[in-house]
Amino acid sequence: DTAVSQTPKYLVTQMGNDKSIKCEQNLGHDTMYWYKQDSKKFLKIMFSYNNKELIINETVPNRFSPKSPDKAHLNLHINSLELGDSAVYFCACGQIPYEQYFGPGTRLTVT
Amino acid sequence: AQSVTQPDIHITVSEGASLELRCNYSYGATPYLFWYVQSPGQGLQLLLKYFSGDTLVQGIKGFEAEFKRSQSSFNLRKPSVHWSDAAEYFCAVGGSSNTGKLIFGQGTTLQVKP
């Protein structure tokens, strides 16, 4: 059983489209995160939910909206996609303040 | 400001040689420190972690790291590198009891020569 899974693994779409990435964890952890990894492999936190409550909301365009329907799921919806949104998006989970477990990533390419 | 610096962007070592990857951090509170490894096209895998206690921590795949508070460092070491260790290595600092936010370094790319 995969601890943290993301779908899709690859996403190719055109500018202006709206897309969603889904994440699920089966570790029973209270907190889930979204990270963005840019082309230089730099990882930066975007959002975090703890027990379905938003606790981290970094400086991210409001075209990005996270949603946590329950403790095991955290989705990321992106409106009006731009070229600069192309990146790898990682979901992670953990128990604050300890280690986080990462999903396999979703490579988003905006053309 | 909270930050993590990995001074070496790219390191090449011969298979069987020893390895040390450097990590320096700046963190206002007690740091929790982590090393992650990312193989090409994969997610991040936790190698080891330090919360408190013994400053020399052992991890998976034969890696170890030493926490030196006076130097604000948490360097990763391996006595003998295998070709399969070629990957991207990330140091991270956290410890916030409110959010668990991790701050990552820029990463070090390890290349292993046969």
Task: Looking at this protein, list some descriptive labels.
heterodimer, A: 111 residues, mainly beta, seven-stranded mixed sheet, four-stranded antiparallel sheet, globular, B: 114 residues, six-stranded mixed sheet, 51% strand
Structure explained in plain terms:
Chain A is an all-beta fold. Chain A is 0% helix and 58% strand. Chain A is built from no helices and 11 strands. Chain B has 114 residues and is an all-beta fold.
Task: Please describe the topology of this protein.
The complex is a heterodimer of chains A (111) and B (114).
Chain A: E1 4-7, E2 10-13, E3 19-25, E4 31-37, E5 43-50, E6 53-57, E7 64-70, E8 73-78, E9 87-94, E10 100-102, E11 106-110
Parallel strand pairs in A: 2-11
Antiparallel strand pairs in A: 1-3, 3-8, 4-5, 4-9, 5-6, 7-8, 9-10, 9-11
Chain B: E1 3-5, E2 10-14, E3 19-21, E4 24-26, E5 32-38, E6 44-50, E7 56-58, E8 64-68, E9 73-78, E10 87-94, E11 103-104, E12 108-113
Parallel strand pairs in B: 2-12
Antiparallel strand pairs in B: 1-4, 3-9, 5-6, 5-10, 7-8, 8-9, 10-11, 10-12
Brief overview:
The complex is a heterodimer of chains A (111) and B (114). Chain A is mostly beta strands and 111 residues long.
How would the global form of chain A be characterised?
globular
Q: Give me the oligomer status.
A: heterodimer
User: If you average the pLDDT of chain A, what whole number results?
Assistant: 94
Spatial extent as radius of gyration of chain A? 13 Å
User: Beta fraction of the residues of chain B?
Assistant: over 45%
Biggest sheet of chain A, open or closed, and with what strands and sense? 7 strands, mixed
Helix content class of chain B: under 10%
Strand content of chain A: over 45%
Q: Strand pairing plus helix content of chain B: what structural class? A: mainly beta
State the total count of DSSP E strands of chain A.
11
Helix content of chain A: under 10%
Largest sheet of chain B: 6 strands, mixed
Question: Which structural class is indicated by helix and strand composition of chain A?
Answer: mainly beta
Uncertain stretches of chain B:
none
Order of helices and strands of chain A: EEEEEEEEEEE
Distance between the termini of chain A: 34 Å
Please count the beta strands of chain B (DSSP E, at least 2 residues each).
12
Q: Low-confidence parts of chain A lasting 5 or more residues at pLDDT below 50?
A: none
User: What is the typical, i.e. mean, pLDDT of chain B?
Assistant: 94
Termini separation of chain B: 41 Å
Number of helices of chain B: 0
